[in-house]
Design goal:
With 372 residues, the protein is of the alpha/beta class. The chain has 18 helices and eleven strands. Strand 8, helix 13 and strand 9 form a beta-alpha-beta unit. The two termini are 17 Å apart. The protein binds iron/sulfur cluster.
Protein backbone atom coordinates (compact mmCIF):
# COMPACT_ATOMS: atom_id res chain seq x y z
CA UNK A 1 0.00 0.00 0.00
CA UNK A 2 3.02 2.24 0.32
CA UNK A 3 2.66 3.92 -3.05
CA UNK A 4 -0.92 4.98 -2.46
CA UNK A 5 -1.01 8.18 -0.47
CA UNK A 6 -4.74 8.04 0.23
CA UNK A 7 -5.37 4.35 0.55
CA UNK A 8 -5.11 4.38 4.32
CA UNK A 9 -7.81 7.03 4.54
CA UNK A 10 -9.93 5.31 1.91
CA UNK A 11 -9.56 1.90 3.51
CA UNK A 12 -10.67 3.33 6.84
CA UNK A 13 -13.63 5.27 5.48
CA UNK A 14 -17.18 4.38 6.39
CA UNK A 15 -18.09 3.92 2.72
CA UNK A 16 -15.40 1.29 2.29
CA UNK A 17 -16.28 -0.41 5.55
CA UNK A 18 -19.87 -0.62 4.32
CA UNK A 19 -19.19 -1.54 0.69
CA UNK A 20 -16.22 -3.88 0.82
CA UNK A 21 -17.95 -6.78 2.59
CA UNK A 22 -20.65 -6.78 -0.10
CA UNK A 23 -18.06 -6.51 -2.88
CA UNK A 24 -16.03 -9.38 -1.42
CA UNK A 25 -19.11 -11.53 -1.03
CA UNK A 26 -20.28 -10.86 -4.60
CA UNK A 27 -16.79 -11.53 -5.99
CA UNK A 28 -16.74 -14.85 -4.15
CA UNK A 29 -20.18 -15.69 -5.46
CA UNK A 30 -19.17 -14.87 -9.07
CA UNK A 31 -16.10 -17.11 -8.58
CA UNK A 32 -14.25 -16.21 -11.77
CA UNK A 33 -12.06 -13.42 -13.04
CA UNK A 34 -14.04 -10.23 -13.68
CA UNK A 35 -12.76 -7.29 -15.71
CA UNK A 36 -14.51 -3.98 -15.27
CA UNK A 37 -13.52 -1.17 -17.59
CA UNK A 38 -13.73 2.50 -16.73
CA UNK A 39 -14.03 4.68 -19.83
CA UNK A 40 -13.45 8.05 -18.27
CA UNK A 41 -10.13 9.74 -17.62
CA UNK A 42 -11.42 11.30 -14.41
CA UNK A 43 -12.35 7.83 -13.14
CA UNK A 44 -8.87 6.61 -14.06
CA UNK A 45 -7.22 9.39 -12.06
CA UNK A 46 -9.59 8.98 -9.13
CA UNK A 47 -9.01 5.22 -8.99
CA UNK A 48 -5.22 5.50 -9.03
CA UNK A 49 -5.15 8.45 -6.66
CA UNK A 50 -7.23 6.62 -4.07
CA UNK A 51 -5.56 3.25 -4.50
CA UNK A 52 -8.94 1.70 -5.23
CA UNK A 53 -7.60 -1.13 -7.44
CA UNK A 54 -5.62 -2.41 -4.46
CA UNK A 55 -8.78 -2.74 -2.37
CA UNK A 56 -10.59 -4.96 -4.83
CA UNK A 57 -10.81 -8.73 -4.44
CA UNK A 58 -8.19 -10.70 -6.36
CA UNK A 59 -10.60 -11.84 -9.04
CA UNK A 60 -11.92 -8.33 -9.79
CA UNK A 61 -9.77 -6.12 -11.97
CA UNK A 62 -10.36 -2.54 -12.99
CA UNK A 63 -8.96 -1.75 -16.43
CA UNK A 64 -8.71 1.65 -18.06
CA UNK A 65 -10.21 2.22 -21.47
CA UNK A 66 -10.35 5.02 -24.03
CA UNK A 67 -11.74 7.63 -21.65
CA UNK A 68 -9.17 10.39 -22.03
CA UNK A 69 -10.16 12.65 -24.94
CA UNK A 70 -6.66 13.97 -25.56
CA UNK A 71 -5.26 10.43 -25.55
CA UNK A 72 -7.69 9.08 -28.15
CA UNK A 73 -7.02 11.98 -30.50
CA UNK A 74 -4.82 10.64 -33.25
CA UNK A 75 -1.38 11.97 -34.11
CA UNK A 76 -2.50 13.35 -37.45
CA UNK A 77 -4.78 15.82 -35.66
CA UNK A 78 -1.85 17.07 -33.56
CA UNK A 79 0.20 17.34 -36.76
CA UNK A 80 -2.55 19.40 -38.40
CA UNK A 81 -2.73 21.68 -35.34
CA UNK A 82 1.07 22.10 -35.44
CA UNK A 83 0.86 22.99 -39.15
CA UNK A 84 -1.77 25.63 -38.34
CA UNK A 85 0.44 27.01 -35.58
CA UNK A 86 3.22 27.50 -38.13
CA UNK A 87 1.02 29.79 -40.23
CA UNK A 88 1.68 33.45 -39.49
CA UNK A 89 -1.95 34.40 -40.17
CA UNK A 90 -3.31 31.88 -37.61
CA UNK A 91 -3.73 32.00 -33.83
CA UNK A 92 -4.35 28.56 -32.34
CA UNK A 93 -6.38 28.38 -29.13
CA UNK A 94 -6.79 25.27 -27.01
CA UNK A 95 -7.29 23.78 -23.58
CA UNK A 96 -4.01 23.16 -21.79
CA UNK A 97 -3.93 19.36 -21.98
CA UNK A 98 -3.24 19.30 -25.70
CA UNK A 99 -0.24 21.63 -25.64
CA UNK A 100 2.40 19.05 -24.72
CA UNK A 101 1.12 16.11 -26.77
CA UNK A 102 3.81 15.10 -29.26
CA UNK A 103 2.98 15.03 -32.95
CA UNK A 104 4.34 12.45 -35.39
CA UNK A 105 8.10 11.99 -35.16
CA UNK A 106 8.34 13.08 -38.83
CA UNK A 107 6.59 16.38 -38.05
CA UNK A 108 8.51 16.86 -34.83
CA UNK A 109 7.65 18.58 -31.61
CA UNK A 110 4.39 19.64 -30.07
CA UNK A 111 2.27 22.76 -29.90
CA UNK A 112 4.34 23.84 -26.91
CA UNK A 113 7.48 23.75 -29.02
CA UNK A 114 5.75 25.67 -31.80
CA UNK A 115 4.89 28.37 -29.31
CA UNK A 116 8.51 28.50 -28.14
CA UNK A 117 9.52 28.84 -31.80
CA UNK A 118 7.23 31.84 -32.23
CA UNK A 119 3.89 30.25 -33.12
CA UNK A 120 0.80 32.05 -31.87
CA UNK A 121 -0.70 29.55 -29.43
CA UNK A 122 -3.00 30.59 -26.60
CA UNK A 123 -4.45 28.44 -23.83
CA UNK A 124 -8.07 29.32 -23.08
CA UNK A 125 -10.52 28.19 -20.43
CA UNK A 126 -13.55 28.18 -22.70
CA UNK A 127 -14.21 28.23 -26.46
CA UNK A 128 -16.12 31.48 -25.98
CA UNK A 129 -12.80 33.01 -24.85
CA UNK A 130 -11.49 32.03 -28.28
CA UNK A 131 -14.42 33.83 -29.93
CA UNK A 132 -13.54 36.92 -27.89
CA UNK A 133 -9.91 36.61 -29.05
CA UNK A 134 -11.10 36.47 -32.65
CA UNK A 135 -12.96 39.73 -32.08
CA UNK A 136 -9.88 41.31 -30.47
CA UNK A 137 -7.56 40.14 -33.26
CA UNK A 138 -9.43 40.68 -36.54
CA UNK A 139 -6.25 40.25 -38.61
CA UNK A 140 -5.81 36.69 -37.33
CA UNK A 141 -7.69 33.54 -38.14
CA UNK A 142 -8.41 32.21 -34.65
CA UNK A 143 -8.74 28.43 -34.53
CA UNK A 144 -10.04 26.57 -31.47
CA UNK A 145 -8.94 22.94 -31.18
CA UNK A 146 -12.21 21.11 -30.63
CA UNK A 147 -11.17 17.96 -28.77
CA UNK A 148 -13.33 16.20 -26.21
CA UNK A 149 -16.36 14.01 -25.68
CA UNK A 150 -20.03 14.91 -25.30
CA UNK A 151 -19.12 16.92 -22.20
CA UNK A 152 -17.07 19.50 -24.05
CA UNK A 153 -18.77 19.51 -27.43
CA UNK A 154 -21.85 21.57 -26.36
CA UNK A 155 -19.63 24.46 -25.29
CA UNK A 156 -17.92 24.36 -28.68
CA UNK A 157 -21.30 24.26 -30.41
CA UNK A 158 -22.31 27.30 -28.34
CA UNK A 159 -19.14 29.14 -29.42
CA UNK A 160 -19.96 28.54 -33.09
CA UNK A 161 -23.51 29.80 -32.59
CA UNK A 162 -22.13 32.84 -30.73
CA UNK A 163 -19.70 33.59 -33.57
CA UNK A 164 -22.55 33.21 -36.09
CA UNK A 165 -24.81 35.53 -34.08
CA UNK A 166 -22.11 38.19 -33.62
CA UNK A 167 -20.85 37.94 -37.22
CA UNK A 168 -17.34 36.86 -36.20
CA UNK A 169 -15.80 35.89 -39.53
CA UNK A 170 -12.34 34.91 -38.28
CA UNK A 171 -13.30 32.20 -35.75
CA UNK A 172 -12.86 28.53 -36.68
CA UNK A 173 -12.96 25.14 -34.98
CA UNK A 174 -10.69 22.24 -35.90
CA UNK A 175 -13.18 19.59 -34.92
CA UNK A 176 -12.18 16.21 -33.47
CA UNK A 177 -15.02 15.69 -31.01
CA UNK A 178 -15.77 12.10 -30.21
CA UNK A 179 -18.72 10.27 -28.73
CA UNK A 180 -18.35 7.45 -26.26
CA UNK A 181 -20.85 4.62 -26.97
CA UNK A 182 -19.49 3.50 -30.35
CA UNK A 183 -15.97 3.24 -28.93
CA UNK A 184 -17.31 1.01 -26.16
CA UNK A 185 -19.02 -1.08 -28.80
CA UNK A 186 -15.80 -1.29 -30.85
CA UNK A 187 -13.99 -2.69 -27.79
CA UNK A 188 -16.68 -5.33 -27.34
CA UNK A 189 -16.61 -6.22 -31.02
CA UNK A 190 -12.87 -6.69 -31.33
CA UNK A 191 -12.84 -8.92 -28.20
CA UNK A 192 -9.16 -8.35 -27.49
CA UNK A 193 -10.01 -7.92 -23.84
CA UNK A 194 -12.99 -9.56 -22.22
CA UNK A 195 -15.02 -6.85 -20.57
CA UNK A 196 -17.57 -7.98 -17.98
CA UNK A 197 -18.96 -4.56 -17.16
CA UNK A 198 -18.52 -0.86 -17.85
CA UNK A 199 -18.17 1.93 -15.34
CA UNK A 200 -19.74 4.56 -17.56
CA UNK A 201 -18.51 8.15 -17.51
CA UNK A 202 -20.32 10.52 -15.19
CA UNK A 203 -19.65 13.82 -16.97
CA UNK A 204 -20.56 12.50 -20.42
CA UNK A 205 -23.74 10.96 -19.05
CA UNK A 206 -24.85 14.25 -17.49
CA UNK A 207 -25.19 15.50 -21.07
CA UNK A 208 -26.31 12.37 -22.90
CA UNK A 209 -28.35 10.63 -20.24
CA UNK A 210 -27.84 7.02 -19.22
CA UNK A 211 -30.24 5.60 -21.79
CA UNK A 212 -27.60 5.78 -24.50
CA UNK A 213 -25.80 2.74 -23.03
CA UNK A 214 -28.90 0.55 -23.25
CA UNK A 215 -27.90 -0.99 -26.59
CA UNK A 216 -24.68 -2.26 -24.99
CA UNK A 217 -26.65 -4.19 -22.40
CA UNK A 218 -29.24 -5.45 -24.88
CA UNK A 219 -26.92 -6.36 -27.76
CA UNK A 220 -23.77 -7.44 -25.90
CA UNK A 221 -25.23 -8.45 -22.52
CA UNK A 222 -22.67 -6.34 -20.70
CA UNK A 223 -23.85 -4.42 -17.61
CA UNK A 224 -23.30 -0.67 -17.42
CA UNK A 225 -23.29 1.54 -14.32
CA UNK A 226 -22.85 5.30 -14.54
CA UNK A 227 -20.51 6.27 -11.74
CA UNK A 228 -19.58 9.48 -9.96
CA UNK A 229 -15.99 10.49 -9.33
CA UNK A 230 -15.31 9.95 -5.66
CA UNK A 231 -13.61 6.69 -4.79
CA UNK A 232 -16.72 5.60 -2.87
CA UNK A 233 -18.85 6.35 -5.96
CA UNK A 234 -16.68 4.00 -7.95
CA UNK A 235 -16.78 1.34 -5.23
CA UNK A 236 -20.56 1.55 -5.12
CA UNK A 237 -20.70 1.26 -8.93
CA UNK A 238 -18.41 -1.78 -8.76
CA UNK A 239 -20.73 -3.35 -6.22
CA UNK A 240 -23.69 -2.67 -8.54
CA UNK A 241 -21.85 -4.21 -11.51
CA UNK A 242 -20.88 -7.30 -9.51
CA UNK A 243 -24.47 -7.72 -8.35
CA UNK A 244 -25.62 -7.70 -11.97
CA UNK A 245 -22.91 -10.16 -12.98
CA UNK A 246 -23.78 -12.42 -10.06
CA UNK A 247 -27.44 -12.55 -11.05
CA UNK A 248 -26.67 -12.82 -14.78
CA UNK A 249 -28.38 -9.57 -15.76
CA UNK A 250 -27.20 -6.74 -17.98
CA UNK A 251 -28.88 -3.40 -17.55
CA UNK A 252 -28.04 0.27 -17.24
CA UNK A 253 -27.98 1.58 -13.70
CA UNK A 254 -27.09 4.99 -12.37
CA UNK A 255 -24.92 5.27 -9.28
CA UNK A 256 -24.28 8.98 -9.98
CA UNK A 257 -27.96 9.81 -9.57
CA UNK A 258 -27.23 13.18 -7.96
CA UNK A 259 -26.23 14.44 -11.43
CA UNK A 260 -27.32 11.92 -14.08
CA UNK A 261 -30.74 10.79 -15.25
CA UNK A 262 -32.01 8.73 -18.17
CA UNK A 263 -32.56 11.61 -20.60
CA UNK A 264 -29.62 13.87 -19.90
CA UNK A 265 -29.40 17.58 -20.58
CA UNK A 266 -31.87 18.19 -23.38
CA UNK A 267 -30.77 21.81 -23.96
CA UNK A 268 -27.15 20.70 -24.45
CA UNK A 269 -28.27 17.89 -26.75
CA UNK A 270 -30.17 20.46 -28.87
CA UNK A 271 -26.99 22.52 -29.19
CA UNK A 272 -25.10 19.44 -30.36
CA UNK A 273 -27.76 18.53 -32.91
CA UNK A 274 -27.94 22.06 -34.25
CA UNK A 275 -24.22 22.38 -34.95
CA UNK A 276 -22.86 18.83 -35.36
CA UNK A 277 -23.70 15.62 -37.16
CA UNK A 278 -22.38 12.10 -36.59
CA UNK A 279 -19.42 10.98 -38.64
CA UNK A 280 -16.88 8.17 -38.83
CA UNK A 281 -13.45 8.97 -37.42
CA UNK A 282 -10.11 7.51 -36.44
CA UNK A 283 -9.32 6.92 -32.76
CA UNK A 284 -5.80 6.39 -31.52
CA UNK A 285 -5.42 2.68 -30.92
CA UNK A 286 -8.92 1.80 -32.08
CA UNK A 287 -8.74 2.81 -35.75
CA UNK A 288 -11.72 4.05 -37.69
CA UNK A 289 -15.00 3.72 -35.79
CA UNK A 290 -18.26 4.37 -37.66
CA UNK A 291 -20.54 7.06 -36.23
CA UNK A 292 -18.17 7.73 -33.36
CA UNK A 293 -17.45 11.41 -33.85
CA UNK A 294 -18.96 14.79 -34.53
CA UNK A 295 -18.50 16.87 -37.67
CA UNK A 296 -19.61 20.47 -38.12
CA UNK A 297 -22.78 20.58 -40.23
CA UNK A 298 -22.67 22.14 -43.72
CA UNK A 299 -24.81 24.99 -42.41
CA UNK A 300 -21.86 26.10 -40.25
CA UNK A 301 -19.08 25.06 -42.64
CA UNK A 302 -17.60 28.55 -42.64
CA UNK A 303 -16.48 27.90 -39.05
CA UNK A 304 -14.95 24.51 -39.90
CA UNK A 305 -11.17 25.06 -39.95
CA UNK A 306 -10.62 21.88 -41.96
CA UNK A 307 -12.78 23.17 -44.79
CA UNK A 308 -12.35 26.94 -44.52
CA UNK A 309 -8.57 26.91 -44.03
CA UNK A 310 -7.79 23.86 -46.17
CA UNK A 311 -6.32 21.80 -43.32
CA UNK A 312 -4.90 18.51 -44.55
CA UNK A 313 -4.89 15.38 -42.37
CA UNK A 314 -2.12 12.99 -43.32
CA UNK A 315 -2.04 9.36 -42.18
CA UNK A 316 -1.53 9.00 -38.42
CA UNK A 317 2.08 8.08 -37.62
CA UNK A 318 2.65 7.83 -33.86
CA UNK A 319 6.06 7.05 -32.40
CA UNK A 320 6.57 3.36 -33.23
CA UNK A 321 7.74 2.58 -29.67
CA UNK A 322 4.72 4.17 -28.00
CA UNK A 323 1.99 1.74 -26.97
CA UNK A 324 -0.70 4.26 -26.07
CA UNK A 325 -3.07 2.47 -28.45
CA UNK A 326 -2.71 -0.77 -26.50
CA UNK A 327 -3.11 1.10 -23.20
CA UNK A 328 -6.30 2.73 -24.49
CA UNK A 329 -7.78 -0.64 -25.45
CA UNK A 330 -6.93 -2.05 -22.01
CA UNK A 331 -4.64 -4.65 -23.60
CA UNK A 332 -1.57 -3.65 -21.57
CA UNK A 333 -0.81 -1.62 -18.47
CA UNK A 334 1.70 1.23 -18.78
CA UNK A 335 4.77 -0.67 -17.47
CA UNK A 336 4.34 -3.12 -20.36
CA UNK A 337 5.47 -0.30 -22.65
CA UNK A 338 9.27 -0.39 -22.96
CA UNK A 339 9.43 3.40 -22.90
CA UNK A 340 7.51 3.78 -19.63
CA UNK A 341 9.52 5.54 -16.95
CA UNK A 342 12.64 5.56 -19.15
CA UNK A 343 12.30 7.41 -22.46
CA UNK A 344 8.76 8.44 -21.52
CA UNK A 345 8.06 10.38 -18.32
CA UNK A 346 5.68 13.22 -17.47
CA UNK A 347 8.48 15.74 -17.98
CA UNK A 348 9.49 14.23 -21.31
CA UNK A 349 6.43 12.39 -22.65
CA UNK A 350 6.43 10.32 -25.81
CA UNK A 351 2.71 9.63 -25.97
CA UNK A 352 -0.46 11.44 -24.91
CA UNK A 353 -1.26 8.92 -22.15
CA UNK A 354 1.75 10.29 -20.26
CA UNK A 355 0.85 13.93 -20.97
CA UNK A 356 -2.77 14.29 -20.13
CA UNK A 357 -4.05 14.82 -16.61
CA UNK A 358 -6.49 12.03 -17.44
CA UNK A 359 -3.98 9.71 -19.11
CA UNK A 360 -3.48 6.19 -17.77
CA UNK A 361 0.31 6.29 -18.04
CA UNK A 362 0.43 9.62 -16.19
CA UNK A 363 -1.87 8.25 -13.47
CA UNK A 364 0.14 5.07 -13.17
CA UNK A 365 3.44 6.94 -13.06
CA UNK A 366 2.18 9.34 -10.44
CA UNK A 367 0.45 6.94 -8.07
CA UNK A 368 1.52 3.38 -8.82
CA UNK A 369 5.22 3.21 -9.63
CA UNK A 370 7.50 6.08 -10.45
CA UNK A 371 9.66 3.99 -12.70
CA UNK A 372 10.24 0.37 -13.66
S1 LIG B 1 4.62 4.98 -21.41
FE1 LIG B 1 4.68 6.69 -22.86
S2 LIG B 1 5.22 5.80 -24.80
FE2 LIG B 1 4.52 4.13 -23.48
S3 LIG B 1 2.35 3.92 -23.87
FE3 LIG B 1 2.54 5.33 -22.17
S4 LIG B 1 2.59 7.36 -23.10
FE4 LIG B 1 2.96 5.89 -24.77
Amino acid sequence: MGNYPRIGRLAGSNAVKTLMPAINELAQHVARDVRLMEVCGTHTMSAFRSGLPQLLPRNVRLISGPGCPVCVTDTNYIDAAIALCRRPDVMVTTFGDLVRVPGSPSVGGSLERERAAGGDLRVVYSPTDAVAMAQEHPAKKVVFLGVGFETTAPTVAASILLAAKDGVENYFVLCAHKTMPRAMEALLQNQEVKIDGFLCPGHVSVITGAAMYRFICEKYKVPCVVAGFEAWDMLKAIEMLLAQIAEGSAKVEIEYSRSVNERGNVAAQKLLTEVFEECDAGWRGLGNIPRSSLAIRAKYARFDAAKALGVKFEAARPDPGCRCGDVLRGVITPPDCKLYGKACTPTDPVGPCMVSNEGTCAAYYRYEKRAV
